[in-house]
TrEMBL record:
<keyword id="KW-0210">Decarboxylase</keyword>
<dbReference type="GO" id="GO:0008836">
    <property type="term" value="F:diaminopimelate decarboxylase activity"/>
</dbReference>
<keyword id="KW-0028">Amino-acid biosynthesis</keyword>
<dbReference type="InterPro" id="IPR000183">
    <property type="entry name" value="Orn/DAP/Arg_de-COase"/>
</dbReference>
<feature type="binding site">
    <location>
        <position position="218"/>
    </location>
    <ligand>
        <name>pyridoxal 5'-phosphate</name>
    </ligand>
</feature>
<feature type="domain" description="Orn/DAP/Arg decarboxylase 2 C-terminal">
    <location>
        <begin position="18"/>
        <end position="354"/>
    </location>
</feature>
<feature type="binding site">
    <location>
        <position position="356"/>
    </location>
    <ligand>
        <name>substrate</name>
    </ligand>
</feature>
<feature type="binding site">
    <location>
        <position position="329"/>
    </location>
    <ligand>
        <name>substrate</name>
    </ligand>
</feature>
<comment type="pathway">
    <text>Amino-acid biosynthesis; L-lysine biosynthesis via DAP pathway; L-lysine from DL-2,6-diaminopimelate: step 1/1.</text>
</comment>
<keyword id="KW-0457">Lysine biosynthesis</keyword>
<dbReference type="InterPro" id="IPR022653">
    <property type="entry name" value="De-COase2_pyr-phos_BS"/>
</dbReference>
<feature type="active site" description="Proton donor">
    <location>
        <position position="328"/>
    </location>
</feature>
<dbReference type="Pfam" id="PF02784">
    <property type="entry name" value="Orn_Arg_deC_N"/>
</dbReference>
<feature type="binding site">
    <location>
        <position position="302"/>
    </location>
    <ligand>
        <name>substrate</name>
    </ligand>
</feature>
<keyword id="KW-0663">Pyridoxal phosphate</keyword>
<dbReference type="GO" id="GO:0009089">
    <property type="term" value="P:lysine biosynthetic process via diaminopimelate"/>
</dbReference>
<dbReference type="InterPro" id="IPR022643">
    <property type="entry name" value="De-COase2_C"/>
</dbReference>
């Protein structure tokens, strides 16, 4: 997308605004499938928690993607967007047993990461095939909040509990059709990923009727110019070779599955916000925008870096700004950042705003959530309307007090 296209969209749909480039989503999907083209049976399950707009889901469904879900609501959204139950995997954590049963009734693949839940489910539903999520005890990920495979993580069944796990499977006579792991997000060292993969392979040898091995995801995307990213081509080459070798060891063909979220949609997203004020203090120049962490919380929550550009004055002289929001708490998007000279009314563009941005937005301070637009075939398509006061009041009930 070009800067002029983004500015035109703000004129048409207002600020703040989320925009997603369909072409970038498609190219990321094709890059990933090409990297693993040597694998006969490959399954990409998009982790929809990253961005769950039904139009984006439909786009990925049309590309041939499956879906990774973590709540029954996500399952229903996936079905609404056109995914068939056999293309959806449900990987919850800490949900009620009733929710797991309800999803299973829909025909969706269940993934269980708790021994007690596994035993309970196997006792009640021994004929329903189940995938098991293991914790390989491998530390990976760019932030403690997104590192989920280490020994203190709440996710997965420890590989050290394998004897107990096998006893449950034997006692219940349940069918295990898949083994899953996820070490964390923003993986830089593919050797760490390959090391964890060996743990998954070794675990898989204990189960005779597997249909797939799910390696999670966590592939890092670049957040700025010359930033490092997961070498997906090298990983594809090395893991594909090892996977094919394991199929021969195992004695049957398996599906290799991944669950990319950020990798597919992060770089496709743009967040556009208008500058309300430029405020000079004794030590800082603040650029205050018409948004806050109610719309984009990742910089405050994860310390994430988003390139911020002044698309209203892209060739202006660079100055140092601290970009902040309008929330009545400290909500700083960037400290002392070099940006082309900013004036009130300018539009700032936050890049890499496709993943965990709108999906983590809120109505804090009773602010409206922004509109969303999908850019496809050179045209902007409104895929979510901006909220109104009616949305804020919709489920509230005023009682006599």
């Amino acid at each position: 997308m070009q800067t002029k296209d983004l500015l035109e969209l703000t004129k048409e749909f207002g600020n703040p605004l989320y925009v997603y480039d369909a072409e970038k989503i498609e190219s990321q999907y094709k890059r990933l499938t090409k990297a693993f083209s040597k694998v006969e049976k490959l399954r990409i399950n998009y982790a929809m928690k990253a961005l769950s707009n039904v139009s984006v889901l439909k786009l990925l469904n049309n590309l041939g993607s499956g879906l990774d879900t973590v709540s029954i609501q996500e399952v229903h959204l996936g079905l609404h967007a056109g995914f068939t139950p056999d293309k959806i995997i449900f990987t919850p954590n800490g949900v009620s047993f009733e929710e797991i049963e309800e999803v299973a009734k829909l025909g969706v693949q269940i993934n269980i990461d708790n021994l007690s839940v596994l035993e309970h489910f196997g006792t009640k539903h021994p004929k329903t095939p189940v995938c098991i999520r293991i914790n390989p005890h491998v530390m990976a990920g760019g932030n403690s909040n997104i590192s989920v495979g280490h020994i203190d993580s709440k996710f997965g069944i420890s590989v050290h509990q394998l004897p107990h796990l096998l006893r449950i499977v034997e006692n219940t006579k349940m069918t295990i059709n898949g083994i899953h792991m996820h070490t964390g997000s923003d993986i830089l060292d593919i050797e760490v990923f390959l090391y964890a993969a060996e743990i998954l392979f070794n675990t898989a040898k204990h189960f005779k009727n597997l249909e797939f091995l799910d390696f999670g995801s966590g592939f890092k995307v670049p957040y700025k110019k010359d930033d490092i990213e997961t070498d997906i081509e090298e990983l594809g080459k090395k893991l594909s070779k090892r996977f094919v070798e394991f199929e021969k060891e195992y004695g049957s063909k398996l599906t290799l599955a991944f669950e990319p979220g950020k990798y597919l949609v992060s770089e496709a997203g743009y967040f556009l916000a208008k500058v309300n004020v430029v405020k000079q203090t004794t030590s800082t120049v603040f650029a205050g925008i018409d948004s806050g962490f109610n719309h984009l919380i990742r910089p405050m929550f994860y310390g994430s870096q988003h390139v911020i550009e002044n698309i209203s004055n892209p060739k202006g002289k660079e100055r140092f700004y601290t970009v902040v929001g309008y929330i009545c708490e400290t909500d700083t998007f960037a400290n002392n950042r070099r940006i082309a000279e900013i004036h009130e009314g300018d539009v700032l563009c936050f890049r890499n705003a496709g993943a965990y941005c709108f999906s983590m937005s809120s109505n804090y301070n009773s602010r409206f959530k922004p509109a969303e637009v999908l850019w496809k075939n050179g045209k902007g398509h409104l895929i979510r309307e901006r909220q109104t006061m009616d949305d804020i009041l919709k489920n509230q009930i005023m009682v006599e007090v």
